[in-house]
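To whoever picks this up:

The parser on our side crashed when reading a file containing two proteins. I've narrowed it down to the boundary between the first structure block and the second sequence. Both blocks are reproduced below exactly, byte for byte. First block:
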Amino acid sequence: MKAAAFSLVVLTLNVSGPRRVQQAWATRREAIVSRLKAEASDADAFQEVWRDSDLDALRLAAGHGHAAAAPALGLAVTSRLPIESSASLDLGGGWGVLRARLRSAQGEIDVYSTRLEPAEGPASAAKLGRLFRLAEFVRAQSSTRPYVLLGDLGVASDERAPSLLLDLLEARDLCVSHGDEVCGRTLGAQRVDYALIPYSPKTPREYARTTLTDLTPDDEDPAPPHFGLLVRLDERFPKRAPAAQPPGRDEALAAIGEALEGARREAEGRAADPGWTPFLATWLETAAQDDVTRLTALEEEVRSARLRGTKPEAPTARE
């Protein structure tokens, strides 16, 4: 009897859930629950789900018997398939990433749920540092396994940051096909939610599309809600091996290091000249010094990663 072809349907959604009970949230949660039942995905990655009761409602609606969560980060992965293990990384400021390792008939598969902050101006350099740390976490956790990185990166798909992340991992953005955006917006007029898998030169049959596009905003928070992404992975996916040495990695590290250096020098200038108002100047100087410390640490991490990448490989023993 021929074995059934592999197929894995995964969904990602920033549910924008509240940390405390809110009456208006009940209406939106019910809409999400109804749509999850209809989508019938195999695994879901959720962001901004803070309460156990909300996670239980989402998991049960999806028909999933397994879940992994990082409550302090508001991240969760639910699955029909057994979850072998999980790990998470706090990237600072409450932003982070969660990895859940699923067991399938074709082997182990890593599913990630991540959420990063929107960042502009000087904060955008620190955002690149967090993307670097995110990439290092994925490379360490999934060095020998296929993975799908899902979630809200807090940056529009037409900006530079996502392309740097793709180069750091040698990953494929399933919402881009032949250079064209195929998923459309997921928050306001932009796509800030992603589904990334290890790159393969073969044209993928996997696809991604937006879903849960009819969710209503919370009456107490008129901001538009995130839409979800639904991804179907085919029988090629379990064979996708992550790249040990992504060809664009060094160039991406150099670009991130340059951005961090510029931001660090700018912070040093703010620390040296915080202004004349006594109390405000002290506060600004302390904040700037904190930025210098944080950016310096990120610079050093990126520099070390570049050095590790340029070291010659050890000679192999000959028989």
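<<boundary where parser fails>>
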Amino acid sequence: MTPFDRRDGWIWLDGALRPWREARLHVLSHGLHYASAVFEGERAYGGRVFRLANHGRRLVRSAEIVDLGLPHTAARLDEAVLETLEANGLTEAYVRRVAWRGSEQMSVAARQAKVHVAIAAWDWPGDPVAARHGLSLTWAPYRRPPPDSLPWQAKAAGLYMVNTLSKHHAEAAGHDDAMLLDWRGYIAEATGANVFFLRGRQLHTPVPDCFLDGITRQAVILLARARGLEVFERQIKPAEIARFEGCFLTGSAAEILPVTALGAQRFAIPEPLRRLMADYAELVRETEAAPGEITPEGAGVGAIRPSA
């Protein structure tokens, strides 16, 4: 894989498209030292961004939660996402928006530091092998902290430390990912995705009370109910997983990926899960919605505008 700092193309930075290799920040940026940064991960399918406006609003909300005043509106940043895709000629892509405090101040408090915003996009074909054969997960060595200990509702850089360490732990042991428990010992999430369990016509998923209620997670719940599945959002104990037939992860990057092993437990890939995967693949390529439109169910896409 080509290192990200050696790629060609265009990155939207602070209001303008710049050559990829010139999109840099200072080594004393506050966001690097104190994790004063928020971000979003999105997917484009056939030139359209799935739930573009949902991601834009969540970025703004995350910035508000961590006291990071964005210099652009959500609508302007949505437009910038489309500009970035168009400039790079991408239709099947991953999009990363990120906002961070700059280098004007170097201390714990840095309210006078300038807030920067960047948007990058690159090819992302998905993982057909993992979708077909499933993932192997181990239990993470760390837990999600209690909700009164950090601003967990924000998609903020600093909150991903335990996720990174847990995934490194899993990969070193020969697994694809790790499953985190919350501070009480209930199942929480994987390192970058939400989790669901299947039993018959029932779908069980942890209550997002100390981790993000993912945009893909919300879409999957709607798809499951449309399929006639009962969805239960509840606290799930690790000992319960032996009762389930299937398990899968959801996320913008992951989409829907089956889990075939979690610790010593093995899972099949049951037919209801295969149907949900097919339904999701169809949903993300729907073209009926206008750019940035949000339906009553929250589904929305954005379209790359034709070149002038």
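After patching the parser it read the second block fine. Residues 288-308 have pLDDT under 50 and may be disordered. The longest helix spans residues 74-88.
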